[in-house]
Amino acid sequence: MEPVNYVDLLNQRYHQQGFPPYQWTINQDAPLTAPTKPLSECRVSMLTSGGVAHCSMPEWDAFATNDFRLDEVDPTSTSGDFTVNDSYYDTTDASVDVNCVFPIDRLRELDEQGVVGSVADRLWSGFMGRIYSRTKILEESAPALAQELHDDEVDLFLLVPA
Predict the structure, then answer these.
(1) What is the pTM for the complete model shown?
(2) Residue 161 and residue 10: Cα distance in Å, rounded?
(3) CA 8 to chain centre
């Protein structure tokens, strides 16, 4: 089986929708920080960028660009409490089982089994759509989210792209 070339497939999809070529960010010096405690003691949160909205929130604009909205998600929500709206990938499977792009049930199972120490009080959905303003992400949005994670005493943060 050949690996999926995600970047090429996404570039083709953007082109088919009439968007300009996406300028991918390539991080050459992103530091890898080893956990300071065992996974079984870590508080975990996660973020999906797959157009996943809790039913109490407005649906995502499936054709959004530069959408910096960030929704807090209650980790006790059930997988049936969500809608998926995204035009950048085939959402068929995610619409049947949101765990494909937001593994909320799997994260709770890891907590129940003691694999992780706990699930944070807030999970996240956001940064949906093409984001061309890297400056806003790097200087405002990411630091603000990092502060929220710090406030929630999160040890590990899972990023689940669509």
Answers:
(1) 0.83
(2) 12
(3) 20
CB 53 within 8 A of CB 123: no
Region for 46 from its dihedrals, namely left if φ exceeds 0, alpha if ψ lies in -120 to 50, beta otherwise: beta
Query: What single string gives the DSSP state of each residue in 54-123?
Result: ETTSPPP-TT-BS---EEEE-TT--GGGEEE--SSS--HHHHH-GGGTS-HHHHHHHHHTTSSSEE-S-E
Q: What is the tens place of the pLDDT at every residue in 12-66?
A: 877 888 877 777 777 778 777 888 899 999 999 999 999 999 999 999 888 888 8
- 70 neighbors 148 (Cβ within 8 angstroms): no
Kindly report the length of the chain. 162
Hey, what are 157's tokens? Answer: 């943060």
